[in-house]
Design brief:
80 residues, mainly alpha
């Protein structure tokens, strides 16, 4: 995730970011509950650590990833 956050910080390699977030969406859609929980904790919560990173990430997120990220933030008590 540090590399993904760095890419989001720069927001210059849009193709690579879209590939990454397409993969995240595929995981989100096709994973079972356990994997989605792990994915939410290890990946999606991190995106919400910094507002500007999350705003950039939202440009690349699919609908299921967006929903899971919002739920991850709510789950740890972040206001969304």
């Amino acid at each position: 995730m540090p590399n993904v956050v760095d890419l989001l910080e720069e927001d210059t390699d849009k193709e690579k970011l879209q590939e990454i977030f397409d993969y995240f969406e595929d995981v989100s859609v096709n994973a079972d509950d356990y994997l989605n929980n792990v994915f939410s904790i290890t990946t999606l919560e991190i995106l919400g650590n910094e507002k500007h990173i999350l705003e950039t990430a939202k440009k690349y997120m699919g609908p299921v990833t967006t929903k899971l990220q919002r739920e991850a933030d709510l789950g740890i008590g972040r206001r969304v």
